[in-house]
């Protein structure tokens, strides 16, 4: 029980990079001579530097061990995260955010890796779902905590990163030393299978769509005449809670639907977005948006579970680092992809409905293809 608490605690701080999002307007006011794009860079630069350590995560684990890599990342992230409280000159602030990202990249992929190594079978499936739920809940905690501290003084927001120290203590005390099998023969250089590569591509597409929907909801509400930012925030907040509930119930749902849970998630998500954009009352939009996040949140854990089940143990660090990269890259790509696709179609240019209809079609065709492919595998290959 205590080991699971230690393992799952890591998921609370996987979204630590975005903890200062709530104070961007206050930071902008503090630096009147600096553009908003440079202020927003203080958030995005951490994601970019995280990619660097994620790329080399496999080497770090081989050299220092999994637990030491995780603990080092948490401590580095905690120290770098609180530095702007003591010195918020823009160059110092900027460099500290780069270092924070390096730390986050050292530990964030291993929220999944620890579960995949320490647990098997249905217990692994249950915990991977719970991990997704705890991750969503953790993001909410960090944003709430940072917002609460900002009410006193925006500088206090950086104490939010002390959570990384608390998690480091839990990991140190409760998580056992983890030894990943090292295979010295030619298999150790074996590349990922085609099936695993396809799942990684699907992971990118999956998160690209969910970021796209969440990105367009505030604009969609505005087009529907609902100009309250409070209502937009409420929808996005409750969507996260719905994602958490989906994660907690993932083990039960996967046991019931098996591989069909993935295409079902895509198809129901398509129906939910279709219902949302054809609604005109805030309450109906709210219901369909929350339903979308609930059903679609079964897709991520299913992909992660399938990938982790089909790779060798020595490949777990690599593959989970790649999964983490797909989520980060998709968040960057989402506004670029959906906005440019809508321009190419050139139908009622500027309307948020264009990219949202493209998302519906993407969800539908992905779901239809996966349904046919899963049926084929089970019927003719006996998988």
From TrEMBL:
Domain of life: Bacteria
Positions of the Major facilitator superfamily (MFS) profile domain: 1-379
Annotated TM spans: 7-28, 34-57, 69-86, 92-115, 127-150, 156-175, 196-213, 233-252, 259-277, 283-307, 319-338, 350-373
GO cellular component: plasma membrane
Membrane association type: Multi-pass membrane protein
GO molecular function: transmembrane transporter activity
Keywords, in A-Z order: Cell membrane, Membrane, Transmembrane, Transmembrane helix, Transport
Subcellular location per the Swiss-Prot or TrEMBL entry: Cell membrane
Regions annotated as coiled coil: none
InterPro entries hit by this protein: MFS, MFS_dom, MFS_Efflux_Transporters, MFS_trans_sf
Pfam families registered for this protein in UniProt: MFS_1 (PF07690)
Name listed for the protein in its UniProt record: Major facilitator superfamily transporter-permease
Organism: Lactococcus lactis subsp. cremoris
Source species taxonomy: Bacteria, Bacillati, Bacillota, Bacilli, Lactobacillales
């Amino acid at each position: 029980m205590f080991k699971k608490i230690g393992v799952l605690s890591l998921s609370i701080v996987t979204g630590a990079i975005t903890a200062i999002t709530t104070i961007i307007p206050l930071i902008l006011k503090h630096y009147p001579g600096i553009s908003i794009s440079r202020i927003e860079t203080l958030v995005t630069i951490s994601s970019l530097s995280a990619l660097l350590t994620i790329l080399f995560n496999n080497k770090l684990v081989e050299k220092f061990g999994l637990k030491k890599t995780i603990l080092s990342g948490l401590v580095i992230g905690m120290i770098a995260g609180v530095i702007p409280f003591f010195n918020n000159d823009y160059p110092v602030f900027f460099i500290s955010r780069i270092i924070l990202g390096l730390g986050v990249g050292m530990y964030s992929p291993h929220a999944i890796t620890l579960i995949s190594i320490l647990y098997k079978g249905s217990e692994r499936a249950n915990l991977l779902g719970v991990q997704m739920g705890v991750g969503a809940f953790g993001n909410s905690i960090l944003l709430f905590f940072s917002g609460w501290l900002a009410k006193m003084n925006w500088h206090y927001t950086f104490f939010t990163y002390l959570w990384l120290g608390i998690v480091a203590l839990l990991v140190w005390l409760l998580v056992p030393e983890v030894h990943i099998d090292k295979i010295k023969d030619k298999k150790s250089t074996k590349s990922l299978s085609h099936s695993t590569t396809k799942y990684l591509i699907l992971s990118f597409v999956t998160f690209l769509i969910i970021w796209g929907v969440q990105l367009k909801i505030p604009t969609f509400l505005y087009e529907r005449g609902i100009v309250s930012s409070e209502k937009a925030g409420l929808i996005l907040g409750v969507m996260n809670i719905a994602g958490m509930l989906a994660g907690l119930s993932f083990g039960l749902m996967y046991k019931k639907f098996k591989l069909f849970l993935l295409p079902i998630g895509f198809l129901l998500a398509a129906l939910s977005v279709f219902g949302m954009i054809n609604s005109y009352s805030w309450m109906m939009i709210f219901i369909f948006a929350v339903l979308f996040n609930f059903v679609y949140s079964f897709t991520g854990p299913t992909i992660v579970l399938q990938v982790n089940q089909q790779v060798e143990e020595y490949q777990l660090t690599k593959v989970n680092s790649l999964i983490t990269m797909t989520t980060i890259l998709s968040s960057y790509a989402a506004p670029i992809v959906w906005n440019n696709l809508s321009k190419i179609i050139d139908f009622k240019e500027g309307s948020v409905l264009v990219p949202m209809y493209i998302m519906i079609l993407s969800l539908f065709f992905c779901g239809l293809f996966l349904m046919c492919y899963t049926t084929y595998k089970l019927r003719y290959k006996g998988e």
